[in-house]
């Protein structure tokens, strides 16, 4: 087993701000369409899959 890649770990845990296109609960709080929340890249991918944020949401955090 190889040691964890610290760069990949940092990318995975980086927070991005996303805009909701549907109501959603996050961290125990209700949010409405057009509200913004901070999530990890993995959470953003999951929210895209669910149709909670737009598929074209920009989630790149390095070298912006």
Write the layout of secondary structure elements.
Blueprint: H1 6-13, E1 15-19, E2 24-26, E3 29-31, E4 36-40, H2 41-50
Account of the protein in words:
With 64 residues, this protein is α+β, with helices and mostly antiparallel strands. It has a domain at 7-50. Helices cover 28% and strands 25% of the residues. It has helices at 6-13, 41-50, and strands at residues 15-19, 24-26, 29-31, 36-40. Strand 2 and strand 3 form a beta hairpin. The longest helix is centred in the C-terminal third of the chain and has 10 residues, at 41-50.
Features:
64 residues, alpha+beta, two-stranded antiparallel sheet, 25% strand
**End-to-end Cα distance:** 32 Å
In terms of structural class, how would the helical and strand content be classed?
Answer: alpha+beta
The average pLDDT score comes to 81
β-strand percent reads: 25-35%
How many DSSP E strands? 4
Poorly predicted residue ranges:
none
Characterize the main sheet. Answer: 2 strands, antiparallel
Order of helices and strands: HEEEEH
Shape: globular
CA radius of gyration is 13 Å
For the largest sheet, list the strands in their spatial order.
Answer: 1-4
